[in-house]
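[Automated response] Your request has been received and processed.

Submitted sequence:
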Amino acid sequence: MELKILILGHLLVISVAINVGFLYRECCIGRIQELKNGNEKNSSLVANGREPHFCETCSSSSTLVQAEVVSSSEAEATSEQVIDLDHGDPKMYERYWRLTGDKATVLIPGWRFISYFSDVGRICWFLEPEFARAVKRLHNLVGNAITHNRQIVVGTGSTHLIQAALYAISPQDALDPISVVSAAPFYSSYPLIVDIIKAGVYKWAGCANEFKKNHGDKMYIELVTSPNNPDGATREPVVNGSNGFLVYDLAYYWPQYTPITSPADQDIMLFTVSKSTGHAGSRIGWALVKDPEIAKKMTEYIMLTTIGVSKESQIRAAKIIEVVCDTHEQRGNNFKEVDPFFDHSYNLMAKRWGQLRAAVENNNELFSLPQFPLGTCTFSQRSFTSQPAFAWLECRGDTNDCESFLRRHKIVTRSGKHFGECHKYVRISMLPTDEVFAKFTERLSTIT
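Generated structure:
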């Protein structure tokens, strides 16, 4: 009882700390070296009404760096600018949603959503029925997950739901904290997500393959990310021990990224609008949970940390999902100005991966990319290889620090060291604006 009280007492503070920590981390991981003639460039920026970008390094150095940065939020990229592809801000989707006009617009009158409660008859009592219906409709359309006899738990993005799942399945009376593992290369934020809570109930234990070799008989929770972030590989559990729990992070199991070969049918499955429709700013994710008792515990965690999830965000996400479904089910009728959403997104990802592979082929002595097996998508009936939201780029030859090498060419990426791998790898976002991505592939192909 005392342990549970301790955990609950920390949760409200921790929920704030998680979000602040991620914002700080995103800034720090994207650190860039001071550009040549940086003082003159910053003077020019100020003269033109633009502030130079400042960021403190996460390393032992305390150097303050200044640079003009191009990220996915920028419309144009020139040869003098730094291209920031460190994080997966899905600006790629903005052009499509502009073309839909006001079809995804939501008008919410001031009297709505006064109450904390949405549906007291549900386990997740703050889940808006409109959002629940939209989630089921989307999965039934795409065929990527079973929704029958599943509880839907809504959260503020996947990070919130991962924490809720860990809270729900961790033994509360164990003498030692349960180990949380994931096969390397694993999502770079997993260690931070797991270890930010110091209540002694669970702890980050690193790579699942190493855990299997040394501690396979102990209790564990394995995070299975499929398709995987950062390398796009299709994943299965690694440890396969008798004392384990599994959480499936399926944020990228959508037909623009990978062939949908069968509906996922796992005990705990996590999804998010960030990478499915591109609306990262709405901060909405959902879990499909088989066991009602686990769903209750996940709901309890979310209640204690945020007292529910924004109804406005749920209604907006529901409307966006409805429009996605309508573009496929009413194609050629009410949506003449745009292609069906997943068709458009698939074609855009295929084009980008073609551009990137051409750039790497032009420099195949310096770089390499993973190859993916051919699969047939039951949703689109296309046969294609995966085209992930991130590229896992390897620097060949004598280049041992790929992140630093690319940074010298004004391309900001995330080093493999953050994913449990070596410095020869970097993760590159494939989701910036068209202008930024075109400039990136052009610059990559000319590196010597």
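Summary generated for your ticket: DSSP finds 13 helices and 18 strands in the chain. Confidence is low (pLDDT under 50) at residues 1-20, 22-70, 72-77.
If you did not submit this request, please reply to this message.
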